[in-house]
Amino acid sequence: MGVMVRIPTPLRKFTGGKAEVEVDGSSVREVFNNIDSVHKGIREKVFDEAGTIRRFINVFVNGEDVRHLQGPDTSVEPGDELSIVPAIAGGRAD
Questions:
Q1: What is the distance between the alpha carbons of residues 88 and 72, in angstroms, rounded to a whole number?
Q2: Could you tell me the pTM of the whole model?
Protein backbone atom coordinates (compact mmCIF):
# COMPACT_ATOMS: atom_id res chain seq x y z
CA MET A 1 0.00 0.00 0.00
CA GLY A 2 1.29 3.42 -0.94
CA VAL A 3 0.07 6.99 -0.61
CA MET A 4 -3.26 7.70 -2.33
CA VAL A 5 -2.94 10.85 -4.45
CA ARG A 6 -6.15 12.62 -5.41
CA ILE A 7 -5.78 14.20 -8.84
CA PRO A 8 -7.81 17.33 -9.70
CA THR A 9 -9.68 17.39 -13.00
CA PRO A 10 -7.19 19.70 -14.81
CA LEU A 11 -4.32 17.24 -14.14
CA ARG A 12 -6.15 14.03 -15.00
CA LYS A 13 -4.91 14.26 -18.59
CA PHE A 14 -1.56 13.10 -17.16
CA THR A 15 -3.11 10.07 -15.41
CA GLY A 16 -5.28 8.81 -18.25
CA GLY A 17 -8.36 10.27 -16.58
CA LYS A 18 -7.79 8.65 -13.19
CA ALA A 19 -9.01 10.66 -10.20
CA GLU A 20 -6.71 8.78 -7.82
CA VAL A 21 -3.36 7.06 -8.13
CA GLU A 22 -1.40 5.13 -5.53
CA VAL A 23 2.28 6.03 -5.25
CA ASP A 24 5.12 5.05 -2.94
CA GLY A 25 7.20 7.65 -1.14
CA SER A 26 8.26 8.79 2.30
CA SER A 27 7.80 12.54 1.71
CA VAL A 28 5.59 14.75 -0.44
CA ARG A 29 8.58 15.50 -2.69
CA GLU A 30 9.38 11.79 -3.11
CA VAL A 31 5.74 10.98 -3.92
CA PHE A 32 5.79 13.58 -6.70
CA ASN A 33 9.13 12.33 -8.01
CA ASN A 34 7.70 8.82 -8.13
CA ILE A 35 4.34 9.81 -9.63
CA ASP A 36 6.17 11.65 -12.40
CA SER A 37 8.06 8.50 -13.35
CA VAL A 38 4.72 6.92 -14.28
CA HIS A 39 2.58 9.95 -15.12
CA LYS A 40 4.95 12.43 -16.80
CA GLY A 41 4.13 16.11 -16.42
CA ILE A 42 2.35 16.24 -13.07
CA ARG A 43 5.42 17.21 -11.07
CA GLU A 44 6.18 20.27 -13.21
CA LYS A 45 2.58 21.46 -12.81
CA VAL A 46 2.87 21.29 -9.00
CA PHE A 47 6.53 22.27 -8.43
CA ASP A 48 8.45 25.21 -9.86
CA GLU A 49 12.02 25.12 -11.16
CA ALA A 50 13.38 25.78 -7.64
CA GLY A 51 11.63 22.68 -6.29
CA THR A 52 9.00 24.50 -4.26
CA ILE A 53 5.26 24.03 -4.59
CA ARG A 54 3.82 26.61 -6.96
CA ARG A 55 1.96 29.36 -5.10
CA PHE A 56 -1.32 28.69 -6.91
CA ILE A 57 -1.29 24.99 -5.99
CA ASN A 58 -2.22 23.67 -2.56
CA VAL A 59 -1.10 20.24 -1.41
CA PHE A 60 -2.74 18.56 1.57
CA VAL A 61 -1.69 15.46 3.47
CA ASN A 62 -4.60 13.93 5.37
CA GLY A 63 -6.42 17.27 5.15
CA GLU A 64 -3.52 19.42 6.39
CA ASP A 65 -1.89 22.01 4.14
CA VAL A 66 1.78 21.07 3.75
CA ARG A 67 2.70 24.77 3.82
CA HIS A 68 1.83 24.67 7.52
CA LEU A 69 3.86 21.49 8.00
CA GLN A 70 7.29 20.90 6.41
CA GLY A 71 6.32 21.83 2.86
CA PRO A 72 7.54 19.36 0.22
CA ASP A 73 9.60 17.61 2.89
CA THR A 74 6.48 16.67 4.88
CA SER A 75 6.63 12.97 5.75
CA VAL A 76 3.99 10.60 4.46
CA GLU A 77 3.25 6.99 5.27
CA PRO A 78 1.50 4.18 3.41
CA GLY A 79 -2.24 4.74 3.64
CA ASP A 80 -1.96 8.54 3.82
CA GLU A 81 -4.01 10.66 1.43
CA LEU A 82 -2.38 13.44 -0.55
CA SER A 83 -4.65 15.93 -2.32
CA ILE A 84 -3.66 18.41 -5.03
CA VAL A 85 -5.94 21.44 -5.00
CA PRO A 86 -5.48 24.23 -7.54
CA ALA A 87 -6.15 27.65 -5.99
CA ILE A 88 -9.27 29.36 -7.21
CA ALA A 89 -9.10 33.09 -7.92
CA GLY A 90 -11.23 35.68 -9.55
CA GLY A 91 -14.84 36.52 -9.21
CA ARG A 92 -16.37 39.63 -7.77
CA ALA A 93 -16.63 40.68 -4.15
CA ASP A 94 -19.83 42.47 -3.30
A1: 21
A2: 0.86
